[in-house]
């Protein structure tokens, strides 16, 4: 079953088309990552799914309900973690959880929440005294207080240090293993790679690519091979392709080859080097990352705006 079905969604603000004929589905229990540059239409789409914004046209079903008609029934079944929380800094962690929980029919206990988000030590601390990362963890805790079937996470780890990001990823993965469906927006491609079962890339209100992170990465045929050219060796003697580039900014000259046939090119170059007795330093073979693919896709659509 689909947790979310969106078909032909359009949202305009005056002449500005923020979302343009958008269609996609999120399956039950799936983690779906929505990616795109600033202004691509992600927030508008998410707010429409949450029932916080009216659409201009198109069909939207969230947990079987039209969010414009959802009211309390939908609010009770979804959790929302926004980029900036409105938590009162004077309240303690315990009081905040109790206050948020009061809005839900079914709610997790304070003990359960602080354990899930690792804030046991801070349960009686004032929100104002928490670090940035601890506040975000509290936000996540408040988002899941009502046992949401569907959780919206808006850039969940923006501003975190690497260790805090890892902890949050583990927490989010833990929630997913409980069966919660998650829709997250993120600017971090490694986050999408780590967390999302599928990602959708938006540009100018449209979906420009969709698939698992692995599918999107394999859609790009280019592999980058690089190595240091040994001193005094003519790169032509190593049979490097004619369109190879050479980076001379470091101590050595690095040959960079972009190719759709990495096996053949590697075999030729390595064979030529070995036949001449050259040991090549710094050999690397790199498949495109999700970031390369994303920047290519989003950049093509955004043109010179970005
Ligand atoms: N309330 C509004 N009134 C008028 N235009 C708006 C409004 N909200 C968004 N827009 C416009 O709609 C377009 C999409 O914005 P949206 O916030 O959905 O993008 P986004 O992908 O979420 O960006 P970000 O990553 O910066 O949050 C932008 O051109 C934006 O200026």
Description:
With 306 residues, the chain is α/β, with parallel strands linked by helices. It folds into two domains: 2-218, P-loop containing nucleotide triphosphate hydrolases (Rossmann fold), CATH 3.40.50.300; 221-287, Alpha-Beta Plaits. 33% of the residues lie in helices and 26% in strands. The chain is built from ten helices and 13 strands. It has helices spanning 42-50, 71-77, 93-101, 110-117, 132-143, 162-177, 189-195, 213-219, 262-275, 290-302, and strands at 2-13, 16-27, 31-35, 57-62, 78-81, 150-154, 181-185, 198-203, 206-211, 223-229, 245-247, 253-259, 284-286. A six-stranded mixed sheet has the order 5-6-7-3-8-9, with helices on both faces. A four-stranded antiparallel sheet has the order 11-12-10-13. Strands 2-1-4 form a three-stranded antiparallel sheet, with helices on one face. A hairpin with a 2-residue loop joins β1 (2-13) and β2 (16-27). α4 (110-117) packs across α5 (132-143). The relative contact order is 0.13. The model has no long low-confidence stretch (mean pLDDT 88). The structure holds adenosine-5'-triphosphate (ATP). The site of adenosine-5'-triphosphate has 11 residues, from β2 and α1. Keywords: Antibiotic resistance, ATP-binding, Nucleotide-binding, Transport. One of its GO terms (biological process) is response to antibiotic. InterPro entries: AAA+_ATPase, ABC_transporter-like_ATP-bd, ABC_transporter-like_CS, ABC_transporter_ATP-binding, P-loop_NTPase. This is ABC-2 type transport system ATP-binding protein.
């Amino acid at each position: 079953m689909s947790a979310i079905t969106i078909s032909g969604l359009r949202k305009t603000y005056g002449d500005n088309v923020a979302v343009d004929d958008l269609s996609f589905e999120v399956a039950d229990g799936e983690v779906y990552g929505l990616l795109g540059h600033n202004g691509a239409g992600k927030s508008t789409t998410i707010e429409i799914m949450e029932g916080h914004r009216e659409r201009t046209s198109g069909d939207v079903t969230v947990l079987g309900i039209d969010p414009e008609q959802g009211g309390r029934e939908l609010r009770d079944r979804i959790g929302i973690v926004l980029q900036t929380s409105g938590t009162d800094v004077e309240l303690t962690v315990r009081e905040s959880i109790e206050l948020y929980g009061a809005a839900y029919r079914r709610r997790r206990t304070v003990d359960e929440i602080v354990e899930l988000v690792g804030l046991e030590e801070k349960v009686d601390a004032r929100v104002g005294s928490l670090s940035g990362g601890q506040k975000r963890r509290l936000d996540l805790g408040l988002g899941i207080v009502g046992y949401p079937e569907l959780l919206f996470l808006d850039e969940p780890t923006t501003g975190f240090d690497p260790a805090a990001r890892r902890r949050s990823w583990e927490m989010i993965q833990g929630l997913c293993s409980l069966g919660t469906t998650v829709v997250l927006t993120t600017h971090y491609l490694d986050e999408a790679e780590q967390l999302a079962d599928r990602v959708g890339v938006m540009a100018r209100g449209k979906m420009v690519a969709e698939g698992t992170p692995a599918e999107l990465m394999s859609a790009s045929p280019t592999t980058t091979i690089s190595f240091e050219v040994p001193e005094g060796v003519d790169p032509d003697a190593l049979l490097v392709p004619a369109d190879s580039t050479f980076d001379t900014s470091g101590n050595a000259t690095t040959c960079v080859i972009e190719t759709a046939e990495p096996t053949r090119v590697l075999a030729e170059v390595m064979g030529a080097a070995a036949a001449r007795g050259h040991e090549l330093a710094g050999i690397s073979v790199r498949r495109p990352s999700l970031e390369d693919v994303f920047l290519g896709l989003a950049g093509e659509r955004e043109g010179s705006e970005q």
